[in-house]
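Hello, quick one for you while I still have it in my head. I'm working through a protein record and want to make sense of it properly. Would you mind checking whether the tokens look sensible for this chain? I owe you a coffee for this, so here goes:
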Amino acid sequence: KVDYDVCSNYGNWLYSAGIGNDPRDNRKFNMIKQGLDYDGNGDYIRLWVPELQGIKGADIHTPWALSSAALSQAGVTLGETYPRPVVTAPEWSRHIPQRPGGSPHPRGRRGPAQAPARHKDRGIDFYFSRKKDA
């Protein structure tokens, strides 16, 4: 038996892409967070984007944030061997930790991104209770 609902399936894909109907204001699909959550080491990207194979670990999700030395070592030249980003959403910045002085910090995280501190102590009951001011 195949359970397939065309409208529901397309609706879910649009919703996931951030262009579907969403009751929350200003929701955007965060591809950096999704990459870190589901491909923490960047293996999937390395499989399909051979230009980035020289970038180690999770840094592959944000090659434009790497130092010129790190890019050179990986054989990547932004704008030549790999394109510069067209857009960098402000929401992505929390997934690209910065060192003092503004240079990107190499990420050692290999698993899911950590929840923001303000949501840390909520637990599952928060999402099912009527009172949401916690």
